[in-house]
Amino acid sequence: MARPVRFTEAQLKQRKAEYDSRRWANIREAKGSNNLIPGNVPMGVVQPLDIKVPKDGLRIAVIPDVQAMPNVPLDHLTWCGKYLARIQPDVVVCIGDFGDFPSLSHFERGTLQFEGRRYMKDLGAFHQAMQLLREPMEKTRGWNPKLEFTLGNHEDHIRRAVNEDPKLEGLMAIDADLRLPEYGWRVHQFLQPVSIGGVAFSHYFPSGVMGKPITSARAILTKLHMSAVAGHQQGKDIAFSRRADGGSMAAIITGSFYQHSYDYLSPFTNAHWRGMVVLHEVKDGQFDEMFVSMNYLKRKFG
Fold it and tell me: 300: which residues sit within 8 A by CB, 6+ positions away?
């Protein structure tokens, strides 16, 4: 396993200052929505991010669920960082569940498997993984991509833990514990979809009164009527459709960017595809997709 990269406090403060000075992704004033601004945009309404789209479209790299946790290999984050530094996309989207946080899981509590889980260990794995990803990117001069992080349900477990046990308020918090802006990320709330180049991104897209995840790419197109990318679900699924103006739509679900397996899954289910996806020529909700497997990253950068 690759050695984790450690940033000094001075480096983290400098990164935070650089992040604060950038004018990233200002929300467009939506017509007929009382000029909604970040913070009071209704959940479920897609926020268009004001990221300029060049004539030939954007290149957007999407990092699916990493599920970083203690005692699992994380060196693929270095491979990913090197790959991103080579292709230099305009935007990098982390689709959420970058950390697993098994100590906050409701499953397996009171069992032998749960023994030894600790929140601080989970945080350590999260930051180790993030540093492994960002270090090769930071070394690349002249490349300053937009970094967008849509929180997943596993990051949201931190908020849920505090809500269920109020005495933890002030001791645990997503902002303070994950420190994502210090790594350069603009953070979007769990299940708050954002749109870049006419393509919607969210950890998953809920449906129905219970808000259950839409579990197929075809259903995303049927329900959302726009191109979209989601994580949360293992493997990869893609569907295509056409718009009334003749343009194309595509939806992708891909939620497995990790090397480890899970005990609760069968050997067959654990054999799902693992990797990331790059969207080329993103413009007006249309793009050319390129899936990049974990095996490819290992051969080229491992």
Answer: 79, 83
pLDDT tops 80 at residue 10: no
Class of domain 9-16+57-301: alpha beta
What residue type is assigned to position 202 of the chain? S
Joined together, the tokens standing for residue 85 give 């530094």
The C-alpha atoms of residue 121 and residue 129 are separated, in whole angstroms, by: 12
Confidence of residue 45 (pLDDT cuts 50, 70, 90): confident
Reported as a single tens digit per residue, the pLDDT across 98-124 is 999 999 988 777 666 777 889 999 999
pLDDT tier for residue 37 given thresholds of 50, 70 and 90: very low
Structure tokens belonging to residue 266:
């069968």
Q: What's the pTM?
A: 0.85
Which residues of 126-274 form beta strands (DSSP E)? 146-150, 186-188, 194-196, 199-202, 206-207, 212-213, 228-230, 236-242, 248-254
DSSP per residue over 157-169, as a string?
Answer: HHHHHHHHSGGGB
Q: State the angle between helix axes of 76-87 and 119-138 in degrees (0 to 180), rounded to the nearest 10.
A: 30
In the predicted model, is pLDDT for residue 6 greater than 70? no
Secondary structure of 81-141 in HEC code, one letter for each residue: HHHHHHHCCCEEEECCCCECCHHHCCCCCCCHHHCCCCHHHHHHHHHHHHHHHHHHHHCCC
Query: Residue 184 CB: number of other CB atoms within 10 A?
Result: 21
pLDDT single digits (tens) 151-192: 999 999 999 999 999 999 999 999 999 999 999 999 999 999
| Amino acid in position 136 | P
Q: Which amino acid is at 138?
A: E
Give the per-residue pLDDT at 36: 36
SS3 247: coil
Burial status of residue 162 (CB atoms within 10 A of its CB: 0-12, 13-18, 19 or more): middle
Amino acid at 276: M
